[in-house]
Design brief:
The complex is a heterodimer of chains A (about 110) and B (about 850).
Chain A: E1 2-8, H1 13-22, E2 29-35, E3 42-46, E4 49-53, E5 56-65, H2 67-81, E6 89-95
Antiparallel strand pairs in A: 1-5, 1-6, 2-5, 3-4
Helix pairs in contact in A: 1-2
Chain B: H1 8-27, H2 32-58, E1 65-69, H3 71-74, E2 84-90, H4 93-112, E3 117-123, H5 124-128, H6 135-141, E4 145-149, H7 151-187, H8 206-219, H9 230-254, H10 263-271, H11 280-283, H12 288-307, H13 320-336, E5 341-344, E6 347-350, H14 359-372, H15 378-389, H16 402-409, H17 415-423, H18 426-430, H19 451-463, H20 476-482, H21 486-495, H22 507-522, H23 526-537, H24 541-548, H25 554-564, H26 567-582, H27 591-610, H28 623-632, H29 638-645, H30 650-655, H31 658-669, E7 676-683, E8 686-694, H32 699-709, E9 712-721, E10 726-735, H33 739-742, H34 746-758, H35 765-774, E11 787-791, E12 799-806, H36 811-821, E13 825-834, E14 837-845, H37 853-867
Parallel strand pairs in B: 2-3
Antiparallel strand pairs in B: 1-2, 1-4, 5-6, 7-8, 8-10, 9-10, 9-13, 11-12, 12-14, 13-14
Helix pairs in contact in B: 1-2, 2-4, 2-9, 6-7, 7-8, 8-12, 9-12, 10-12, 14-16, 14-17, 16-21, 19-21, 19-26, 21-23, 21-26, 22-23, 24-27, 25-27, 26-27, 28-31, 32-34, 32-35, 32-36, 36-37
Classes of the chains: A alpha+beta (about 110), B alpha+beta (about 850).
Chain lengths: ~110, ~850
């Protein structure tokens, strides 16, 4: 089991979600986040008020998947979230030791 | 004689059989009252039997111990899975110690028989004391009923202890009950209109009825006017029966004390016409949505009943200054309107109830609430309700026109009128299209409220912006204060979702159909109807763009700007989106979404002001416009119209209707006879002046100067030129000294003065000097720092000059003069104000080219010195 975290552009979220559903991934946690990597921010002026947009809006997806699904999920996200511009986001993978379903205490991949 | 208790193996099945019989009876159509009575009798009988048996087993007499039913059980409203609230009343502390083992047996046996006993024990002396941290116990004690035990002890409790202590505890109980009620209502967003309401605790639930009964009981004969009319008593009895039936049904369906009327149970309840008394009405088939409307109707009755007794506080907390100003205005209003209503204790009260038979007075009352933010008192609402419920009383002027409605919708606090109008069903009288969503449940796991409640909340969220400390409101506060034609925005919000109550595939189509009928009935102008149409049609676009497009991509911004077309629309659409998302549920508008919305707004707004000269009209491509202008200008020659329109920025087309363009064209045609054409129109608290003339040096500065000389404060202006060099300037100004308003004859002199100065026939200086002497400089309320900036990238032909400065009369003249002195030509100008801040954008050229670096520096220096 691995945990997949993907930070993507908000505008790509619907497409990524639909594509993941198509390969059988329905369960995920979605968070509205702000941050920046190499994209950095920029300064905007509106009616004399200057404001710095240094933390850009992003969407964070989190899901724990059985090993055989990981590569497909990564490929799907890469394919649907990529625009080729700075700011497309990142994918992080990490090993998960255990998963437990609270309702019936099932463990391991059965709990996913 | 001591012995043992009747075995549970005997009592248990007996009790269970009786419970099943009651349930079957209910499911066969018995009323809630019959069911609750039967459940209460079962509990009473069982408790009395067990009590007698434990006394016998323990060899004790009941002297010194009373069993008292409290709360809902005390008032014989015992629902299938409700707790059995029982007080063990002891004659003394010694009795308490002696009876303890007996009570343990009693309680355990009842538990084993499936009764959820919630018990309390007090001595008679303890009942005299006020337990300040346990108001709930004192409130439950108001519904005491002797179940079993020492009658004399209970009699002493009622006649000697409670008689005195309840009087003493009255202020405490009134305050606590009010506090508890407000906290309970706040937990449910202060509304009855939940998609899945809790029929006990939510506003309009049974708890409201009980709280109203307690408040009346506690206040006793202390309050005048707390008595209900016969109609109100009848309505509330029907509502209680209806809600009791639902609560019984929910308990049986959930097999526990769960009072949430879920979507699934709404369908089941509608299927069996739950709560509707036997008769033809019960046999009608109703959809769950129709049945839920019946629920909300009853909930409204109970909520209104309670709110009459709860201390009312203004929803909008006004500053002392605002309150004093409103009081002064209110006093003037009273005199003008023959004292039909007045402000008392911060509420609008009806002084002359008879006058309410004239709907003009009622709507004047609503308009006053919307203008000042002062709420109608509950008694004022009750008086209107009485008139509405008695159609036999004479009523006049029942038709409401757009002018009246516009006054309410365009005010600072529209919701202060719309809320009572909704509670009294008058909103549907004025706007019958709203009926489609009245109390409408649309099953949606994202929305929390009924569609009508959602729509009204959108307006409340906007109205609260100026005083909101909410982080999400930061950017939108100023937008609400300065947005033009708020009335159109509010009308759009009222209608944007009415299509959800229609049998149409896309609710927006239904809402647009509703607008069409409303616009025809109110005789909305073409412009007004088109603006509301735009907002309804595109009310989801901004939200979709910010969430599904890359808002930092210039392509997204320009496409969105093209669809919106004008800055004014953008402001309204942005506020509409803010309100719409916010009203979905309390968590829907996250700070993240608010920020995204703001960034899309700011980027689009900047796009509008920086790309004005990029996109110009090519009249030959505008066949429909040519047709319309030609026809509205009395069949004018299309080639002439084409020549007039050619080269104006597209904004000109976007901000003017074909009728207005036709009027401008007619002025243009007269230029041959009179080289300066003017059109002056009085607007709401301001004037608008259109000037058409051939371009010439310093023209903009000259006109600004004349306006300043006449004491007019320019709040907004556009300056456009077409390809043939004809300038069309529009100035919106406030007549600071009411010169034109109070002296209509001055209007002609003002126009002549404008034409003469513009043509060089009269000098400007004497006008300005006279004004300088007459006006006293007032210190600004808010200091605005001067900012001057250039943008050479946005336009191909011009240099953009952006100025933010402290607004003051004559400012535009000073800026325009400086530009003219330095040989700068104004291609386009956009002038705006935001409170005391002037925000001006000029597209400048010098001999047909962008300004040189040197010229920009020189201009910067001159402007800094002029504006500081």
């Amino acid at each position: 089991m691995m945990k997949l975290e993907a930070i993507i552009q908000p505008s790509r979220f619907e497409s990524v979600k639909d594509a993941l559903r198509e390969i059988g991934i329905e369960g995920m946690t979605v968070t509205e986040v702000r941050g920046h990597g190499r994209q950095k921010g920029h300064t905007e002026v509106y009616r004399g008020r200057e404001y710095t947009v240094d933390l850009l809006p992003k969407i964070k997806l989190e899901m724990v998947l059985p090993d055989p699904l990981i590569q497909r999920a990564v490929d799907t996200i890469l394919k649907t979230a990529k625009t080729g511009k700075i700011g497309d986001g990142k994918i992080f993978l990490s090993r998960v030791e255990e998963a437990i379903r609270i309702r019936n205490e099932e463990r391991g991949e059965n709990a996913l | 004689m001591p012995g043992s208790l009747t075995p549970l193996s005997v009592l248990g099945p007996q009790t269970e059989d009786e419970r099943n019989r009651i349930r079957q009876h209910f499911e066969a159509g018995a009323s809630a009252r019959e069911t609750l009575d039967a459940l209460c009798n079962l509990a009473d009988r069982t408790a009395q039997q067990i009590f007698a048996e434990v006394l016998r087993v323990h060899g004790a007499a009941a002297q010194g111990l009373s069993l008292v039913a409290l709360g809902g059980y005390g008032r014989r409203l015992l629902f299938p899975y409700s707790d059995l609230d029982i007080l063990f009343l002891f004659g003394s502390e010694k009795a308490e110690t002696e009876f303890r083992p007996l009570i343990a047996d009693f309680s355990r046996t009842l538990w084993d028989l499936g009764f959820r006993v919630s018990s309390a024990g007090r001595t008679l002396d303890e009942c005299k004391r006020i337990e300040e941290d346990n108001a709930e116990f004192h409130l439950a004690l108001l519904d005491r009923r002797l179940l079993a035990g020492d009658e004399e002890l209970f009699d002493r409790l009622v006649k000697k202890v409670m008689a005195g202590s309840e009087k003493q505890a009255r202020p405490f109980l009134l305050a606590e009950l009010t506090k508890l009620t407000k906290e309970r209502h706040a937990r449910y967003g202060n509304t009855i209109y939940h998609l899945e309401p809790n029929v006990k605790d939510a506003p309009g639930g049974l708890r409201d009825f009980q709280a109203a009964a307690w408040l009346r009981q506690i206040a006793g004969d202390q309050r005048d006017g707390w008595k209900n009319s016969a109609t109100e008593e009848e309505l509330s009895a029907t509502a209680v029966d209806f809600l009791c039936a639902i609560r019984c049904f929910l308990h049986y369906s959930n097999a526990r004390n769960d009072n949430t009327l879920t979507y699934e149970l709404q369908s089941a309840a509608a299927e069996r016409s739950l709560g509707i008394p036997k008769g033809p009405a019960r046999d009608l088939r109703r959809s769950p949505e129709e049945w839920m409307r019946l629920y909300f109707r009853q909930a409204r009755v109970l909520n209104r009943l309670l709110l009459r007794y709860i201390e009312q506080k203004p929803a909008v907390q006004l500053s002392l200054r605002a309150r004093l100003l409103n009081a002064a205005r209110g006093a003037r209003g009273d005199m003008r309107k023959g004292r039909s209503f007045a402000v008392r204790d911060g509420m609008l009260e009806v002084v002359d109830e008879q006058a309410l038979s004239d709907r003009t007075v009622t709507f004047a009352l609503f308009a006053e609430a919307a203008r000042t933010g002062i709420p109608l008192s509950r008694e004022a609402e009750r008086a209107i309700f009485y008139i509405l419920k008695h159609p036999e009383l004479p009523q006049k002027n029942t038709e409401v026109n757009w002018t009246t409605l516009r006054e309410i919708l365009g005010a600072d606090y529209p919701s202060m009128a719309l809320r009572p109008m909704q509670r009294l069903s008058m909103l549907m009288e004025v706007l019958p299209e709203f009926r489609a969503i009245d109390s409408l449940v649309v099953r949606d796991f994202y929305h929390r409220y009924t569609v009508d409640e959602h729509s009204l909340r959108t307006i409340e969220h906007l109205q609260e912006l100026p005083d909101s400390c909410d982080e999400r409101a930061t950017h939108f506060r100023q937008l609400w204060k300065t947005v033009e034609r708020r009335d159109l925005l509010i009308l759009a919000l009222l209608l944007h979702d009415v299509g959800k109550g229609m049998a149409v595939e896309n609710h927006v189509t239904g809402s647009l159909g509703a607008l069409e009928t409303a616009a025809a009935r109110f005789r909305l102008s073409e412009y007004d109807a088109a603006e509301v149409h735009f907002l309804i049609e595109h009310h989801l676009d901004m939200s979709a763009t910010m969430q599904r497009r890359d808002i930092f991509d210039p392509g997204t911004v320009s496409a969105f700007a093209d669809a919106v077309a004008t800055q004014e629309r953008l402001q309204r659409l942005c506020l509409m989106t803010y309100g719409d998302i916010h009203a979905v549920n309390p968590e829907a508008l996250t700070p993240w979404k608010a920020e995204m919305l703001w960034q899309l707004f700011a980027a689009t707004s900047n796009y509008f002001s920086r790309t004005l000269d990029r996109d110009r009209l090519h009249a030959s491509d505008e066949l429909s416009l040519l047709e319309q202008v030609s026809s509205q200008a009395g069949g004018a020659n299309k080639t002439e119209v084409e020549r007039f329109l050619e080269g104006f920025p597209r904004r000109y087309r976007a901000v003017h209707t074909p009728a207005e363009i036709a009027a401008h064209f007619q002025l243009y045609q007269k230029l041959g006879a009179e080289p300066v054409q003017t059109e002056l129109k009085a607007r709401h608290h301001s004037f608008s002046l259109t000037i058409l003339t051939a371009d010439r040096p310093a023209l903009f500065a000259t006109i600004s100067g004349v306006l300043a000389g006449w004491g007019m404060n320019i709040v907004k202006a556009d300056a456009f030129a077409n390809a043939a060099g004809v300038v069309l300037d529009t100035f919106h100004f406030v007549d600071l000294h009411h010169t034109l308003e109070l002296n209509p004859t001055e209007i002609e002199r003002f126009r002549k003065s404008l034409a003469d100065v513009a043509m060089g026939k009269a000098p400007l200086d004497p006008l300005l000097k006279a004004r300088e002497i007459a006006s006293k400089a007032k210190p600004p309320k808010v200091a605005v720092e001067t900012q001057i900036g250039y943008d050479d990238a946005s336009s191909v032909h011009s240099t953009l000059l952006e100025i933010m400065a402290q607004d003051r009369p004559g400012l535009l003249y000073d800026v325009g003069s400086a530009l003219a002195r330095l040989g700068c030509n104004i291609d386009v100008a956009l002038i705006d104000t935001e409170g005391q801040k002037a925000i001006d954008v000029f597209y400048l050229t010098e001999r047909g080219k962008k300004l040189s670096q040197q010229k920009q520096e020189l201009l910067q220096e001159v402007l800094q010195s002029t504006l500081s």
